Amino acid sequence: MTVAIVGAGITGLACAAELAPAERVQVFDRIPVAGGVHGWRASETVALGRGARRAGATFRLGVTAIRWAEGQLLAVGPEGVHRVAASVLVVAAGARPLTRAELGLAGGRPAGVVPAPVACHLAENGLLAGRRPCVVGGGDWAHRACRELLAAGADAVTVLAPGGLRRAMPEGVDVMEGRSPTAVEGGPRVTGLVAGEERIACDAVVLAHGLAPLRNVEGAVWDAPDVVHAGALDDPATVAGAREAGLRAAAEVRALLGSAAAA
Amino acid sequence: MPPDDGHGRRDYDVVVVGGGVVGCAIAWRLGFTTARVALVEAAHDVGEGASKGNTGIATCGADCAPGTLEADLVTRSSPRWEELCASLDTPWRRMGTLAVAMTAKEERALGHLRDQARENGCRADVVSGDEARALEPMVAPGARAAVHIPDDGIVDSLRLTIGYAELAARNGVAVLTGSPVTGVEVEDGRIAALQTPRGRLTARFVVNAAGLEAGRISALAGGDEFEMWPRQGQYWLLDRELGGRFQKIVGGVPTEVTRGIYCVPTTNGSLLLGPTAVDSEYPGSRAVDADTLGAVFAAAHRLVPAVRRDQAIKLFAANRPASDPVYRVGRDSRVSNLVHATGIRSTGVSSSPATADLVHTLLAEAGAPVEREDAPAERSLPPLPRLLGNPDPERLLDLDPRYGQVVCACEQVTAAEIAAACAMCVPPRSLDALRKRTRAAGGRCQGTVCLAGVSFLLSLHMGMQPWEIPVGEPEATLGVAS
After folding, report:
1. Do A221 and A196 share a domain, yes or no?
2. B85: Cβ–Cβ under 8 A, 6 or more apart, which residues?
3. How far is CA B378 from CA A66, A113, B88, B381, in A?
4. What is the rounded CA–CA span in Å between residue B448 and residue A233?
5. Are A64 and A32 in contact (CB under 8 A)?
6. How close is the nearest chain B Cα to the Cα of A67, in Å?
7. What are phi and psi of B296, to 5 degrees?
8. How far is CA B442 from CA A141, B314, B412, B445, in A?
């Protein structure tokens, strides 16, 4: 039986390595390297990838899975369209911080309310989301955003951690714990973030709180009978947690394949 | 840079002031004539006011007050949507509305609603609660009855407005964004020229389709005195995992004050909840607040219990241009070469094609040279294929290999689609403007993954540095210089 896995992070790799000895496994990732947030050079990425390949799994990296319908996965990449018939689809596409709407932030729509992955991506290219940004969150994305913003030249960074700090923030960052943001202020760019009675003056709001799974394969809905949604949603993320999530997904796939065979 | 049409021209037969759906529709209609036409818009893009913050319902006119100009224009527009949207490459679906009664009192109002619809020439039937749920299983089990209005439709109002402007531009209309009218030169009771920060345009005739700014424009011209004020609406946009399952628009029973809160499936599969209707002071606010949003959600949840707060992908507000009376469409009583098309408070999308025709007629009566149709004019936009849901992706990649490069994963927007949007006659000049054309960064993660990549691509197309890229208006930049 063929199993298609979307996402070549630790979770997808662990699932692939576990299933590949018995099933035909194809792994897709929109990024041209494996490893996801843990990186392509991490020793676990290398080891799990090697194990999966040796067991017969094939990889299509730099290829975006876009649609799942009637047992067929459709994916596109620079070299063309891929169609893979599969019995089960595993979506292990990673996670992202919550959006403004998911946080229920009221107020207007000034520029400068930036998701943490975007703020990091911009900072890595020398572009600051703000000189005095307020980072909302207390885990991995908040930590990374603080580090990148400071490295790119931010003057002062405030962290507003609604659920408290899940890890230590870089030095020089002001931390306010246990308060939830309620509204943004300003226009045309952000001038402040309101958290209940408090108002934090800032020129950018970086959204780094919470985690929601990324699942952008059309048709791979939550309640689809032939789809397994995998991912740890731990914050901070650990390789061990991601690997366990991959093994759990592999067990779910086996159960689905088993019941399909029995039927 | 002076506001010209790219060839140094600054004298026009007709200048349309306002690039909302009404002004763009008028420009579209005039684009088929031999008249020299310009459209001036204050914002950086067309469709930046009520035209981008509405339910997207193209009503057939069932709930318009019978005998009014609004009812006339909306019902005359309704049969045209299939052909119009095909010609403007705009998503559209005639799916019908259920106006659902949850109480005995609401049930008693249904007969009136049906009779009013029929008086407007619209199909409408009262159906039982069970029949309503058969038509739309999302309707609450407690529904007592409903009026079914089968000819209401949904339209992508962003793409409609841009489509009107784009086809107008392809037919020679100068679409001048970022050009607010700051002064009006009047000679002998006629407008001679309009002033903008980017230069002066002479105009033989002027159409005032400036929405909330229409009262100010008329005052600058010494025309009829009237007041415009914002009627704010707040909305929830929910994920398409739910919205894609809807068969019908689901609404409550309209009152005299408002059409009420709707659950509206959008053409891209998401679900809109709203709007509220609160009059406020000029210029109004686009801020949302938790109390109002909570009330919208509760009203929607009463009709459709399946809606959940955690499905929200966007919370937003917009202002409709209110005035008394509504639908001020006609020649000014003092300024002989000024035609108003304003006060179109809530049905601007729904009436736009017929309103454009009416303004064309009014201009002709006023003596504007708009009666000769321009034989070589293009009648439709070349459709821009999209990857999302496309039945033949292989053909798309043959067309342009950049269709294999998915930039926005939520909406599956590719580099090919972004390049095509940037090559439009009315190109995007901001991330919002690009989103309106392509849906890039407009999906469930709202750009969390892709916005940096999208901004890099847009900066290449615009010839700007990434930090100069505006989110909306030019000063609303994505980042700050480091």
Report:
1. no
2. B91, B92, B155, B160
3. 35, 41, 11, 8
4. 16
5. no
6. 8
7. -60, -45
8. 22, 9, 10, 8
**B21-32 as b/e: b if 16+ CB within 10 A:** bbbbbbbbbbbb
Could you tell me the pLDDT band of residue B256, with boundaries at 50, 70 and 90? low
The Cα–Cα gap between B171 and B27 comes to 10
Specify whether A113 is located in the same domain as A196: yes
Write down the residue that tokens 């409709």 correspond to.
Answer: B320
Q: B131: phi > 0 → left, psi -120 to 50 → alpha, else beta; which?
A: alpha
Does the predicted TM-score (pTM) go above 0.80? Answer: yes
pLDDT in tens, B403-426: 999 999 999 999 999 999 999 999
Q: Tell me yes or no: is domain B97-150+229-320 CATH 2.60.40.420.
A: no
Can the peptide bond before residue B325 be classed as cis, meaning omega within 30 degrees of 0?
yes
Report the C-alpha dihedral over residues B20, B24, B27, B31, rounded to 10 degrees. Answer: 170
Q: What SS3 class is residue B264?
A: strand
Rounded Cα distance between A229 and B109, Å, is 47
Same domain, A228 and A251: yes
Question: What rounded mean pLDDT belongs to chain A?
Answer: 96
Q: Please name every residue paired with A204 in a beta bridge, in sequence order, or none if there are none.
A: A133
Alpha-carbon B330 to chain mean position: 21
Q: Which two tokens stand for residue B293?
A: 């949003």
In 3-state terms, what secondary structure has residue A60? strand
Number of cross-chain residue pairs from A and B with Cβ atoms under 8 Å apart: 153
User: Which A positions 83-122 lie with beta carbon below 8 A of chain B?
Assistant: 96-97, 99-102, 104-112, 114-118, 121-122
Beta bridge partners of A153: none
Specify whether A12 is located in the same domain as A49.
Answer: yes
Residue of A20, A9, A5 lying closest to A57 (CA atoms): A20
- Average per-residue pLDDT in chain B? 95
Q: Are B40 and B3 a contacting pair, CB within 8 Å?
A: yes
- Residue A193 burial (C-beta neighbours within 10 Å; 0-12, 13-18, 19+): buried
DSSP 3-state of A131: coil
Closest Cα in chain B, distance from residue A76 (Å)? 5
The superfamily in CATH containing domain B1-91+156-228+323-383 is FAD/NAD(P)-binding domain (3.50.50.60)
Q: What is the DSSP string of B312-340?
A: EEEEEEEEEEE-SSS-EEEE-SS-TTEEE
pLDDT digits (tens, 9 = 90+) for B145-204: 999 999 999 999 999 999 999 999 999 999 999 999 999 999 999 999 999 998 999 999
A190 contacts A111 by C-beta, under 8 angstroms: yes
Domain with residue A104: its CATH number is 3.50.50.60
Total domains in chain A come to: 2
Q: Is the peptide bond before A236 cis (omega within 30 degrees of 0)?
A: yes
In this structure, which amino acid lies at residue A65?
Answer: A
How far is Cα A50 from Cα B279, in angstroms, rounded to an integer? 64
User: Are A101 and B312 within 8 A, CB to CB?
Assistant: yes
- B388 min Cα distance to partner chain A (Å): 8
Using the structure block, give the residue that is written with the tokens 């415009």: B228
